[in-house]
Amino acid sequence: MTSKAQAPRNVIFNGDCIEVMQAFDSGTVDFILTDPPYVTRYRDRQGRKVANDDNGRWLRPAFREMHRILKDGGFAVSFYGWNKIDLFMDAWKAAGFRVVGHLVFRKRYASSARFLRYEHEQAYLLAKGNPVRPARPIPDVLDFPYSGNRLHPTQKPVEALAPLIEAFTQPGELVLDPFSGSGSTLAAAQQLGRDWTGIELDNGHYHTASKRLAARQHHRAAA
Q1: Following CA atoms 120, 208, 200, 119 in sequence, which dihedral angle do they give, to the nearest 10 degrees?
Q2: Res. 80: pLDDT tops 80
């Protein structure tokens, strides 16, 4: 039987996040910040899609693995699709997470308009066990600058993610994003002196994120 490994640091895996996380030791990740598919069959103006956005079969097993490998007393932040909140909440609670906060990311533009103009993103703050309350809690409403979505159809801006990593981790701790897309979470962690691990199913986005993190690392080293 193959023994599990400590969660690797400063690397991106190209593969299914459930399978990749199954190889990690329990309790080896300090913080999880992720933007999973919203299960909405999303297609942007250029026709780009998101892998596994057409089904929710992965939700329960993925969050079960996230809970297992997160340290006791650790936090996870997960974006979600508002119209599929029943599926997400079911997966979080089935995994063992406690819901301890809600975050709203304020946009200065509308990503789309139907019955309302959609000018925000949202995420839940999840806890494993009984974490220590931060000395200086950050606001639950944060600004969300426009990323341009050049690297990914649902690209999140580093500026919106960095305050979360800064609030819930210390330098040198490990930040995991199992749905890392173009690598925005990883770039924010790297920028703040945290270790990071990413997992991305789509081969194209995996290469985009790998090049992005390598370029940022080279820039930091040359500075």
Answers
A1: 10
A2: yes
| Choices 1.10.246.90, 3.40.50.150, 2.60.40.1760, 3.40.50.2000: CATH for 11-222 | 3.40.50.150
Residue 196, token pair as written in the block: 């990071």
More confident residue, 149 or 84: 84
Buried b (16+ CB within 10 A) or exposed e, 90-100: ebbeebbbeee
For residue 113, the 8-state DSSP code is B
Residue type, 99: V
pLDDT digits (tens, 9 = 90+) for 108-139: 888 888 899 999 999 999 999 999 988 889 99
What's the length of the chain?
223
What is the side-by-side strand order in the sheet with 11-14? 11-14, 195-200, 174-177, 29-34, 70-79, 120-127, 98-106, 141-143
| pTM > 0.85 | yes
Q: What are the extents of the domains in the chain?
A: 11-222
Q: Which long-range contacts (CB under 8 A, 24 or more apart) does 209-217 make?
A: 209/12, 209/180, 209/181, 209/182, 209/183, 210/12, 210/183, 212/151, 212/182, 212/183, 212/187, 213/12, 213/183, 213/186, 213/187, 216/187, 216/190, 216/191, 217/190
Are 194 and 172 contacting, i.e. CB atoms less than 8 angstroms apart?
Answer: yes
